[in-house]
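Shipment paperwork, digital attachment
Item: protein structure file
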Amino acid sequence: MRKIFSSAVLLFAVVSNAFSQDSTKAAKNDIDPSKPTNLYTQVNMNLEYQSGKVQNLYGIRFNVQYAINPDNLFLIELPFLNNDRTSKFGIGDMRVRYYNAIKRNITKSFIAIAPFADISMPTGSYKNGLGTSSWSLAGGVVFGFLISKKLSLFPGINYVHITKPGTDLIPASNKFASNGVGFQFNASYVINKQTFLFVNPLPTFLNTNGSWKSFWAAEFNLNRIIKPNKFKMNLSWNPNFTTDVNTFRLGGTFFLSTVKDA
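Attachment content:
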């Protein structure tokens, strides 16, 4: 796992440096992807590796985001993964998300209020180790705060409902739905005009069959703008400390929207 992560870091640095030779300085009208409440039409493609206790998955994850306007965005995410335990390749669970930035620039430091709805669909095969066989439904709101020119905070809260597993491979007596609440504490730090970092703790608290359990996860996402308004690269580590699953992604984003954020 360390070798794979080290190789990804090296590849990110080499490719980023190669492309950045042609980069131009950021202009005032450039879009700003360092703030997640800025909504742009974009296509993301990531190489992915998930390391777990009993199985590992690797493949490619596509993420397409369509901004109807600067305040409304739809997201569709679809992974294609291989499971080394089952030796099966196929589609994983699909995700659909909707954002609505209902308020911006409330004050100089309070920059956004953005409700969202998030659905994960059990499109992946549970038998092949590619899906959960459960629907996950979440609804909540994200707030944006500008702390300084370099640091922005985007805390959020959401209600979570996870349906009973649909697979016949789990006995009916062991199938339960879960309900609870999730939090995010996303911090965006601008390192320079081309590079920014997201650090996002993600605690979730779920009630399953009358018993509460906490899940502790996080996202660390390093981004580098290669061509302003056109293309960036990203390298991320998404650990789930509760389930002991680590996900690594290396990818790129093509921006198709040139509308500046509101």
